[in-house]
Structures are given as structure tokens and as C-alpha cells.
Design brief:
Length: 554
């Protein structure tokens, strides 16, 4: 193994010799010798907090809520040793990190057995060819309602300049709806068919109204990496008196445009630049207010932006958020977000050098969300199938050829109006296919969809039903590439994705209630011949430490 080329990302407390031997012991194929690595130890525990007046058990990582920043650079090899000290199994997933060739470490129930209480397991993955702002969260057993989430940054390599002046500093801003009830109570209510209650508030970096502070030097510009880590609410974000210059969405640098407010749907991440350009050395409101709340009373997160030297209260009233149900405004904003084709990102060549518009679509999959009474409880469906997890992760069942764990192509590519049922469907897809996925939403509520293992080009969205004639209106030039996209009520959103990452990948509703009650599916991206193991060049071999459970246990 080649010498470590950079140790700047290491924690100083870990002796070099230890790291080297750790690397030698773990799968050497995983580590690209030229690339540096990051090694972190995370201890997961319960604690009690009461942000909105009610004590609640939260999930902490290294005694922090939100959890620590995972600060990395493009191509870093990352090792996260997770020690589960909860009373139940635990899994973390890396929302938006592409896990190239490595669904083994994706951290969802379809790919990994959860880490048992009292045990630890080391996730190992590479931040291959990515830049941007993301977050991690617990994917098992509705634990996301108890926190356990934290920010991820993938910084540009030094050789590739960022497409804007170096900001004075970066802030991670995690916003999300918050529920006073214990996550286990919420979980058993959902099991009994009780709808998730209205949120009790919004947290900004784990803090309730008027508790989180951001300090700006007058005149300086900051990068805010904002993620909506909540369970379901869309949040409209703004800073009183300041414009937001949008620069990045989940790993794409965007055409830089100013917005007064930004709709951030559940599971989405954005970077904006904010300049402390107001004449008054004063304190300003940061506001994250829920929208499109499906009958819930809107909730508002409020933090302070202090210009340094100012400790007072903000002047004036809270800035107004856009009208709660104005979908037109929100869709118009979504369509205005475009990729900067000339900016470099993870590679020296510009983002626009991959010409998605020249590639023929080889398969169209329409995923229609729905809700149906199954076993007397409202479950949520994709093409009329409500996903149920078997006792064995799909990825392990596939690898060990264990039959009857999942149903290949168990949902149709085009919804066929079947009677809603439970199932464990896996979309069977071919490596190098170029797939069009249309998310069709015929319900009165907003939806947000995410694909693991990839980012996709968001080429179109509009009201009504999608049909092939809509392709004429697609953005075939500078569509943004990201991994989580909203679908407005009675509308569709179309994305294009080149299937260049072998593995078992989760396609999920980012609304945690809907996902918990079945609104997800998996896509297996495979080579033509499934009787041979993929070339390790195309997919990492199974990690020797992989946890085995269910029918894969022996
Ligand atoms: C993150 O890593 C970058 C690159 O090594 C470094 O410059 C920066 O200071 C780090 N940020 C934090 C908050 O640790
Ligand atoms: C568990 O943690 C110990 C050290 O804390 C480490 O040596 C070991 O490799 C870890 N086990 C796994 C499966 O990651
Ligand atoms: C932030 O500032 C407010 C008022 O200026 C204060 O009440 C609050 O405790 C501060 N929060 C933290 C975490 O320091
Ligand atoms: C696009 O990126 C380039 C850097 O390559 C930058 O100079 C330019 O300002 C960006 N354009 C827009 C409109 O954001
Ligand atoms: C795309 O399809 C057209 C028409 O079927 C064909 O002429 C063309 O060669 C195809 N392009 C590629 C890149 O496969
Ligand atoms: C479903 O609910 C109805 C009415 O509440 C009840 O009569 C029926 O027994 C229930 N069926 C099942 C399978 O629980």
C-alpha cells in the first residue's frame, strides 16, 4: 500500500501507526492509495432534552445533538466506527453520498443488518467524485424522530477552485420539524394506524426558537449549508433583510441566483452565500417556517444572526413567509434552479462536460405514490405496493442467492391499477441503462423522493399527469443534478439517471411517516450475467466484517 498522502484530515489524537495497521487489516481494495482518509469514532447514546417544554429522549452522537460534522474532501476514504449504546438496533445512512460501488455500506435496512445494542461496526466508503453538502440520519425504526442526525461536507480538492470567492466561513444549518412525543410512542402509534401528529415546533441545529446564534463579521460573506432533517414538513428558509445567493444543491454547483426565501423540502440540502451587508450593526432573524402542511398548524423555527458587536434583539417584526399553500411560487422556484455548466466540481473538467441530453433513454419507470387501507391500517404505496422489510437485507439475500426474500420486478414499470398489497419489490435494472424515472403524485399533499447511490438530472416538473409528450418541455441543457426532489400535489417530476453504480439502492419517500408505512422500493443495478460476481473494479467485494442476520446469519 502506498504511503498516506495526506494526514491533515486525521484527528490528531489517533497515532499514525494505529491507522496504518487498521487500513492494512481492512479490505485494501476499498482504499484508493492516492486518496487521503478520515477516521472517526462515534458513540451513539440516549439523552434527555426539552426544547419545547417537554422532556424527550434524543439520540446523541459523541454527546452531541445534532451529531458531529463529517468533514471530508472529494475522494477521501472515510471510516466511521459506530458504537451502538442504545437499547435497540441502530443504522445510519448517508443521505446524498453516492457510496460508489459500495451499497454494502449504505446503511439502510435493505442493504445492512442493523448494529445490535452494545456492538459496533465500521462503515467504510469513499467520497468518490463528489462535492457538496449532505447529512446522515438513523434509518431504522423511526429513530429519526429522536435526532441522531448530523451534517456532512464534501469539500473541493485544492486543485479545483470553487466557483465563488472563498467565504469567510461555513455554517452547517440543520432545520427540521420536531415532535414532543417519544419516538417509540410515535412508532407504535403508527403501527396501530394513528397518523403522525402535527409537529410541535422546528429545531435549528437542535435548538428551539430564539436559542441558536450565528455570528457574522460586518461585510463578510458566509456559506450556509442547509439541510431539512425533519420528518415531513417543507420549511421555507430566510434571513431578515438578507438575500440568499444559491450556489449548490446536493453536490451540483448552481447558476448563482438571489432568492429572498428558499423552500427546502424534507431530506433536501442547499448551500447559499449570505453577505452581512446591512447598514445596521444589529441582530437579524433567521426563520424556517413550515409550508404545505397538510392540515397541520404551521410551526416556525427562529434563530439569531448577530453582526459581531451586537447582542441585542432584532429590530422590526419577523419577516413574512410566503403564503402557506402557494404551490405555483414554489414550483417556479424549483424550475429556476439550474446547474452551472462551466464550474468545476469533483473533477477538473466542468460539470457540463457530461452530456445527458445526448444519451438515449433505455427504460421509463413511472412511480406513483398512493395510500390504501391494507389490514385495516392506512399504508403508503408505490405503484400500489406497500413495502415490507423481510428479516434478511435484500443485498445479502441477493449475494448469497437466498430465495423468496424479495420479488424481482415486483412492481410494474407503469402503474397498472392493481389492488394495493404488501410486498418486497426490487426493480431489476441493468448497469449502463439510462433510465427516466417519473414521480407521479395524484394526492393532495406534497411528496419528496430520494434515490440512494446516485444523483439524477431533474429535467421537468408540472401539474397533471405525465405522458411521453412532456419530454418536449424537458430542460435538456442545464438541469440540476441532485438526489432528493419534491413532487407537488397532482403533479409529476421527471428525472434522468445513468445507471453507472452497481448495487442495491433504496428509492424512498423522504417523508419518514410514509416511508415507515411502506412508501419505498429498491432498485438492483446489476451486470448482464448475475451468475458471476462483479469485477471488483465495478463493485466492491462484500466487506469481511459485514453483519449477518435473518436467513443470511449462517
Ligand atoms: C474541514 O476540512 C477542511 C479541509 O481539510 C479544513 O480546511 C476545514 O477547516 C475543516 N473544517 C472543520 C469545521 O473542521
Ligand atoms: C469495533 O471497535 C473496535 C475499537 O473500538 C475496533 O477495533 C473494531 O474493529 C470495531 N469492530 C468493527 C466490526 O468495526
Ligand atoms: C443565543 O442568544 C440568545 C439571546 O441573544 C440567548 O438567549 C441564547 O442563550 C443564545 N444561545 C446560545 C446557544 O448561546
Ligand atoms: C459559473 O461558474 C464559474 C466558474 O467556473 C463562475 O465564474 C461563474 O460566475 C458561474 N456562473 C454563474 C452564473 O453562477
Ligand atoms: C439513439 O437513438 C437513435 C435513434 O434510434 C440512434 O440513431 C442513435 O444512434 C442513438 N444514439 C446513441 C448514442 O445510442
Ligand atoms: C377491520 O375493521 C372492521 C371495522 O372496524 C372490523 O369489523 C374488522 O374485523 C377489521 N378487520 C381486521 C382484519 O382487523
Amino acid at each position: 500500500m502506498a504511503m498516506i498522502s495526506s494526514i491533515t484530515t486525521l484527528r490528531p489524537s489517533i497515532p499514525l501507526i494505529l491507522i496504518t495497521s487498521f487500513l492494512l487489516l481492512s479490505s485494501p481494495l476499498l482504499v484508493t492509495s492516492e486518496d487521503p482518509y478520515v477516521f472517526v469514532d462515534w458513540v451513539v447514546t440516549y439523552s434527555q432534552i426539552s426544547p419545547y417544554g417537554v422532556q424527550k429522549q434524543v439520540i446523541m452522537i459523541n454527546d452531541q445533538f445534532p451529531g458531529p460534522l463529517l468533514n471530508t474532501t472529494t475522494n477521501d476514504n472515510v471510516f466511521v466506527n459506530v458504537h451502538n449504546q442504545l437499547s435497540e438496533p441502530f443504522l445510519l445512512t448517508w443521505n446524498g453520498v453516492q457510496m460508489r460501488k459500495n451499497s454494502w455500506n449504505d446503511g439502510v435496512e435493505g442493504t445492512n443488518c442493523p448494529i445490535a445494542p452494545g456492538k459496533n461496526w465500521t462503515y467504510s466508503f469513499q467520497m468518490k467524485d463528489q462535492i457538496g453538502s449532505f447529512f446522515y440520519f438513523p434509518s431504522f425504526g423511526f429513530q429519526k424522530a429522536a435526532g441522531g442526525y448530523g451534517p456532512i461536507r464534501i469539500n473541493n480538492r485544492e486543485v479545483i477552485p470553487i466557483p465563488f470567492d472563498q467565504p469567510e466561513g461555513d455554517f452547517d444549518v440543520l432545520i427540521g420539524d420536531w415532535y414532543n412525543s417519544d419516538y417509540k410512542e410515535l412508532r407504535s402509534s403508527l403501527d396501530d394506524g394513528v397518523k403522525l401528529p402535527s409537529p410541535d415546533g422546528v429545531l435549528i441545529n437542535g435548538l428551539p426558537q430564539y436559542k441558536a446564534n450565528f455570528t457574522f463579521q460586518p461585510g463578510a460573506t458566509y456559506r450556509l449549508r442547509i439541510s431539512n432533517v425533519g420528518l415531513k414538513a417543507t420549511l421555507n428558509f430566510q434571513i431578515q433583510g438578507h438575500k440568499l445567493l444559491l450556489i449548490e444543491t446536493e453536490g451540483s454547483y448552481t447558476i448563482q441566483q438571489y432568492y429572498d426565501t428558499l423552500d427546502i423540502h424534507v431530506g433536501q440540502s442547499y448551500s447559499v452565500l449570505v453577505t452581512a451587508d446591512q447598514p445596521e450593526i444589529a441582530t437579524y432573524y433567521m426563520v424556517a417556517k413550515s409550508r404545505f402542511s397538510d392540515g397541520d398548524i404551521p410551526v416556525t423555527g427562529i434563530a439569531f444572526v448577530h453582526y459581531s458587536g451586537s447582542n441585542g434583539q432584532p429590530v422590526g417584526s419577523l419577516p413574512q413567509s410566503p403564503c402557506s399553500n402557494d404551490y405555483t411560487y414554489s414550483m417556479k422556484q424549483a424550475l429556476s434552479i439550474r446547474r452551472n455548466l462551466t464550474a468545476g466540481a469533483a473533477r477538473p473538467n466542468p460539470q457540463g462536460s457530461y452530456h445527458y441530453e445526448r444519451i438515449n433513454i433505455t427504460r421509463t419507470i413511472i412511480l406513483k405514490n398512493g395510500a390504501a387501507l391494507i389490514s385495516n391500517i392506512t399504508h403508503y404505496t408505490v405503484n400500489d405496493v406497500s413495502f415490507v422489510y423481510p428479516d434478511t437485507p435484500l443485498k445479502l439475500a441477493d449475494y448469497y442467492h437466498i430465495p423468496d426474500v424479495f420479488t424481482l420486478n415486483g412492481i410494474p414499470d407503469i402503474p397498472d391499477g392493481r389492488v394495493p398489497v404488501f410486498g418486497t419489490p426490487v426493480i431489476d435494472a441493468l448497469y449502463k441503462d439510462f433510465v427516466q424515472i417519473v414521480f407521479q403524485n395524484n394526492q393532495p399533499i406534497i411528496q419528496t423522493w430520494h434515490l440512494d447511490g446516485y444523483s439524477f438530472f431533474v429535467v421537468g416538473m408540472d401539474g397533471g399527469n405525465w405522458d411521453a409528450s412532456k419530454k418536449k418541455g424537458y430542460n435538456m441543457m442545464d438541469a440540476v443534478s441532485r438526489s432528493t426532489i419534491e413532487v407537488y400535489p397532482f403533479s409529476w417530476t421527471a428525472v434522468l439517471v445513468p445507471l453507472d453504480n452497481l448495487g442495491m439502492w433504496n428509492i424512498r419517500s423522504q417523508d419518514e411517516e410514509k416511508r415507515y408505512l411502506g412508501q419505498e422500493v429498491y432498485m438492483r443495478v446489476r451486470g448482464v450475467d448475475t451468475s458471476v460476481l462483479p469485477n471488483p473494479r465495478d463493485e466492491n467485494p462484500i466487506p469481511s466484517s459485514i453483519i449477518k442476520c435473518g436467513r443470511a446469519a449462517n
